[in-house]
Amino acid sequence: MKHILVTNDDGVLAPGLLALAQEMRKLGRVSILAPDRNWSGGGHVKTLDRALRVREFLLADGTTAFASDGAPSDCVALAALGYFKEPIDLVVSGINVGANLGHDVTYSGTVTAAMEAVIAGVPGIAVSLETPEHHVGEIDFGIAARAAGKVVRHAIENGLPAETLLNVNVPFLKNEEMRGFRLTRQGLRVYHSRLDERTDPRGRPYYWIAGDAPTGVPERGTDIGALAEGYVSVTPLHLDLTAYRALTDLNTWAWDEDSENPFFELLVPDKSETPK
Amino acid sequence: MKHILVTNDDGVLAPGLLALAQEMRKLGRVSILAPDRNWSGGGHVKTLDRALRVREFLLADGTTAFASDGAPSDCVALAALGYFKEPIDLVVSGINVGANLGHDVTYSGTVTAAMEAVIAGVPGIAVSLETPEHHVGEIDFGIAARAAGKVVRHAIENGLPAETLLNVNVPFLKNEEMRGFRLTRQGLRVYHSRLDERTDPRGRPYYWIAGDAPTGVPERGTDIGALAEGYVSVTPLHLDLTAYRALTDLNTWAWDEDSENPFFELLVPDKSETPK
């Protein structure tokens, strides 16, 4: 029986985590270790400059969960390094309130928790539910939990490709409106941030990163496109960020034109070594 | 004349930032906006739940710098959104004490600052100096600054490929030991983390993420391999994390075997839509 770590970035008491844990209990033995507060937008963190605390919480269904004062990725690290006596076989992160699409993935605590799993050699799956701004109070996590259950069951049965995590996003639709699953690539987010400068009561400026919620380019084949068409999006991600195509361009730069000293004399690169 | 934003993740008063800023002044007009404290390992952060402060600092060479209480990526966002009156043409981040290689890139404040630049539509370059643990007091940033100067000058002259940032790592070598530059792909980091459980004076446990510094696989063609051979490593990175090869594997999963209701009936994916 698989030992599944459930975590999230909305905090251990978030209802999305409970819904996910309940679904995962159908598929394996579940341990919960999640942040003790909301870490949304907190990025891929490794806390090395302070110690971490872990406390026990009781969830709404009477089950036990653990929470640390670290980031979601710290929770995964703690578990992968042996906080629970039994090794972790799979990390499932979510269900996040709000989709994690396109460029969101490197900011997202939900997704970076799954990244941390992959770095620790454990499969990782991130699950997020698209949530229009004015519908936060009307969320039914049941559909997203079932979608997560299906993906995780397949991942357990088939195994995930090496070094790969899955980024699962569920559209904000009723059950009968759902069209199924799509395998997708990462799409293009469009951010609408702007700077909001204000003045405090003592006359000093402070700055909000303000602006409307991000939108995206709903291109077919992408995560954003799949949600726009009513599908659950399943995007395999890896941690090799190399821009292989750019290597060719950069190779044309005149790297050795200015050999004013030994440091700059021998220069780049043997094309045979820059692969694929 | 290019307007270059210099930032870092070691904090505005770090000597690596000053060395970088001085080198960049040879290439353009420099503005500095960096974190007011060390953010190492802090990941790709977007601070939306609190306002940010910006304060003015005087650097050791008598020039002016600005510092915010946000992450490196927040500093880039503030600048890209108009904190300085003139638009930013290029973001250069560093010089970090310690290399950012392999899987380090999503944790690294230095690299995620350059990612934030790319998301804002501005070229980004991260510069890090390999620093053996017991040599932190003996760092000469001059060599790394000159390497950065060379890369940035080429980037200004040739332009960076779209949606691409550069991750530059300089080996810890004397000038005469440097062998030049290598274009590389991201290599494999090997982390040696372990959990160090301790007990506080009140008998309660707390946990350090402990262990030796990460090493790496010094494969030829990779960032880690280039440093091991005495070269400055220049790795082009992008923010499309899609694991394209994994799409093919995942496509073989029996996604539609359990169509117990409409939600699960129509299933994945039209192969023609999952590209390259």
Give a short synopsis of this structure.
Chain A is built from seven helices and eleven strands.
Characterization of the model:
The structure is a homodimer of 276-residue chains. Chain A contains 7 helices and 11 strands. Chain A has 276 residues and is an alpha/beta fold. The first copy, chain A, has 2 domains: 239 residues, Survival protein SurE-like phosphatase/nucleotidase (Stationary-phase Survival Protein Sure Homolog, Chain: A); 33 residues, no CATH class. In chain A, the strands form 2 sheets. In chain A, strands 3-4-2-1-5-6-7-11-8 form a 9-stranded mixed sheet, with helices on both faces. In chain A, strands 9-10 form a two-stranded antiparallel sheet. At the A-B interface, helix 2, helix 3, helix 4, helix 5 and strand 8 of A face helix 2, helix 3, helix 4, helix 5 and strand 8 of B.
Itemize the secondary structure elements and their pairings.
The structure is a homodimer of 276-residue chains.
Chain A: E1 3-7, H1 15-24, E2 29-35, E3 54-58, E4 64-68, H2 72-80, E5 90-97, H3 104-107, H4 109-119, E6 124-129, H5 141-158, E7 164-170, E8 180-183, E9 189-199, E10 205-216, H6 223-228, E11 231-238, H7 244-251
Parallel strand pairs in A: 1-2, 1-5, 2-4, 5-6, 6-7, 8-11
Antiparallel strand pairs in A: 3-4, 7-11, 9-10
Helix pairs in contact in A: 1-5, 2-4
* CATH architecture designation of the largest domain in chain A: 3-Layer(aba) Sandwich
CATH fold name of the largest domain in chain A? Stationary-phase Survival Protein Sure Homolog, Chain: A
Compute the separation of the termini of chain A in Å.
Answer: 39 Å
Averaged pLDDT of chain A, please? Answer: 90
Order of helices and strands of chain A: EHEEEHEHHEHEEEEHEH
Total beta strands of chain A: 11
Strand content of chain A: 25-35%
Largest interface: pair, residues per side = A-B, 100 and 100 residues
The main β sheet of chain A shows up as: 9 strands, mixed
Radius of gyration of chain A: 21 Å
Helical content of chain A stands at 10-25%
Please tell me the total number of domains of chain A. Answer: 2
CATH superfamily of the largest domain in chain A: Survival protein SurE-like phosphatase/nucleotidase
- Low-pLDDT ranges of chain A: 259-276
Strand order of the largest sheet of chain A: 3-4-2-1-5-6-7-11-8
